[in-house]
Q: What sequence folds into this?
């Protein structure tokens, strides 16, 4: 690991992930889409202007009801308008507030929207870091392209993201150990009802206070976070397997893009899970009941094989049904590095395999991985009348999940120097 | 047909459609969802208030560039706010203008949005009519429920829709033969990033000037309508069959709900079709290449059977992959009534069957049916290297499609008294 990568002036590092080769990532990083005409301007971070708020809000305490509401944004937002005729305008950081959107806007009718989710961390050394943000930048571009929103050079977006974090971090990440959730978004704003690629769009980046979702020790101060972490005391995540008449995504669809269309339609099943005392839906696919994702997280199972080896399995990316999670890629990478005895396999696997492993007492752990919930160990899976209780549900600590979580946190909070931890330079007033 | 149904004071008529029984429709029409608490208020049209605009805009001419832009709304909009704690507030008609939406709003991230599309027609007798609006009302409720937005009594919504049309029709439908496109919409407005059922929502109804899309005689005044009507002179609709790696909807998904999530993800394929000179994508499903929808319209094929009979086929509703179109139901009903020699069949059918019928010279017509394009005869289908030229593409008039269009138009414009034509009472200043 090159220590230079931890420096604030270094460019985003190419990653070691399996899903995209370095060359492939570089191709995407330098790619610019839909700028055929020389008069059309590309996204340009060097044009950023800023207007500071005059009366900043109070920053809520880490575990307060305000934080659990997931509705408190920082003082500012970064916005950048795009039009088909002129391209990207100059981005600006300005006071956070409501957007003015016409009732005919594309995003309100045709779900022309995509987003990213990542966090900024105030490390033990007092410096602010992002975790593998280059991965979010390239995925953001892929999602935008999939939903017919304008493309951009991911490197310019990444620079804007750092500028935004650097602007609000001094006030909004006051203490070492604090984190802030970042939500870059693009929406189609064309005020016209024709079903077509939007001719106007808005990119914006906001920072929102998030509670420690998925942390077994966290107790929400209010009743409803919407994330289900409050169900049944959160000793471990309880999953309800999806029914055959409700699927999240399909091959040839868009399950691998971070677009709104993957989320709204899942809320009915999710609400049913909550009502029945589960935290999340475990999304299955097909008559074989392939295991795909858990809520908005990727899902891993660790078991002994019939031959006695240790295996960690997760659904593959090839058929485009699951999201290519940054945490997912990092779990795979870190386990391969730190735990050579564990065979990490990306392949299709079924509920039947999980139940068989349970019956034969080979099941060790299951956990979700994602930005919001981070690493969330699972205690129970309910599958069409059958309760699969994982060792965690019987009081056995999820040691592997906790170790993985620790290794990744050490990078996020700068305890371990690693190229995945990208330091952001802060702008003090 | 009871003439009373054509009276402005009659309630919405139950329809004779095959998809929902009368009892089933009535159950939905009187249904009220999510109002467990007596303190929560249901949608109530009697509470409607209105504020008239002081300086009305100019109404664009029927075939002008403004109309082809599909972006000119009428002077007013109807809005109604909902919150989980208090239910529906009093609806209001007010000047049309931008909505104020927080950057964290559910609709901008999770596609919690649904809509309807129907038209208001100024009839030959000078009266304004809606076409089977009770069907739109019940479907609107079903879409809202599918995407976790609040429910409402469809009868109250229908009353609000009539009030809105009655308010703006005097200025915006000045001449007999004019029509206006209506777009009822519900969006999730909760300003919180938790992935959950929205706790706040906004219903709104707008009226937008639409060009005569799908009319072979119509020539757009501007280059891009986004609807593809301008491609290749529009003598007939040219369809590009979808590729195996791009699928619109899936059983257990949400293809039968009018939610944004069905539209945004289809724009990439649609843009490719336009670039290649086609009007719309013909959406196929599965390895069998079942024919499902054409663009945003339902799709019908008329052919001679091998036994020599006349058959009109369209995809079935059962597996939830296609939208339950109001025009689709009306085509089925009117053909059964007017053309007893044509056997109307709702069943799965394949591209192979179309190609076989073409080869054996049994193919008579193909057409899309929907509100925006109405009845749009098809001249060509390109299917993975094969061009299927329908009789229309060889200069044979699409007589059946034109007859169906005429019968339905006669109801819409009040030439034929029919319970499907629902008169709206206008409010003159």
A:
């Amino acid at each position: 690991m090159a220590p230079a990568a931890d420096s604030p002036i270094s460019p985003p590092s190419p990653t070691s992930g399996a899903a995209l080769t370095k060359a492939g990532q570089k191709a995407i990083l330098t790619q610019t889409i839909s700028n055929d005409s020389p008069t059309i301007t590309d996204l340009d971070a060097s044009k950023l202007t800023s207007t500071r708020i005059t009366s900043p809000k109070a920053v809520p305490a880490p575990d307060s009801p305000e934080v659990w509401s997931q509705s408190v944004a920082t003082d500012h937002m970064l916005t950048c308008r795009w039009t088909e005729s002129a391209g990207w305008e100059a981005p600006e950081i300005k006071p956070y507030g409501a957007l003015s959107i016409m009732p005919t806007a594309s995003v309100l009718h045709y779900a022309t929207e995509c987003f990213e989710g990542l966090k900024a961390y105030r490390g033990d050394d007092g410096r602010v870091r992002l975790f593998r943000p280059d991965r979010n930048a390239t995925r953001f571009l892929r999602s935008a392209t999939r939903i017919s929103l304008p493309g951009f050079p991911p490197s310019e977006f990444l620079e804007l993201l750092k500028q935004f974090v650097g602007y609000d971090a001094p006030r909004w990440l006051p203490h070492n150990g604090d984190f802030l959730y970042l939500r870059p978004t693009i929406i189609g704003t064309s005020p016209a009802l024709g079903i077509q690629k939007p001719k106007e769009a808005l990119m914006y980046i906001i920072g929102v206070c998030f509670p420690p979702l998925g942390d077994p020790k966290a107790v929400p101060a209010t009743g409803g976070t919407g994330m289900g972490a409050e169900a049944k005391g959160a000793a471990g995540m309880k999953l309800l397997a999806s029914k055959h008449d409700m699927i999240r995504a399909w091959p040839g669809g868009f399950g691998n893009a971070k677009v709104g269309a993957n989320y709204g339609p899942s809320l009915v099943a999710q609400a049913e899970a909550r009502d029945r005392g589960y935290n999340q839906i475990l999304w299955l696919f097909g008559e074989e009941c392939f295991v795909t994702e858990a809520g908005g997280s990727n899902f891993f199972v660790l078991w002994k094989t019939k031959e006695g080896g240790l295996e960690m399995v997760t659904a593959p990316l090839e058929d485009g049904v699951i999201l290519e999670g940054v945490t997912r890629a990092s779990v795979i990478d870190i386990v391969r590095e730190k735990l050579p005895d564990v065979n990490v396999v990306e392949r299709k696997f079924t509920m039947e395999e999980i139940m068989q492993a349970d019956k034969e007492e080979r099941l060790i752990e299951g956990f979700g991985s994602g930005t919001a919930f981070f690493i969330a160990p699972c205690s129970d899976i309910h599958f069409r009348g059958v309760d699969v209780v994982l060792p965690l549900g019987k009081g056995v600590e999820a040691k592997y999940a906790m170790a993985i979580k620790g290794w990744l946190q050490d990078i996020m909070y700068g305890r371990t120097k690693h190229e995945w931890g990208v330091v952001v330079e802060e702008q003090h007033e």
Observations:
- Chain A touches chain B through 70 residues (CB under 8 Å).
- The CA atoms of residues 299 and 368 of chain A lie 4 Å apart.
- The radius of gyration of chain A is 21 Å.
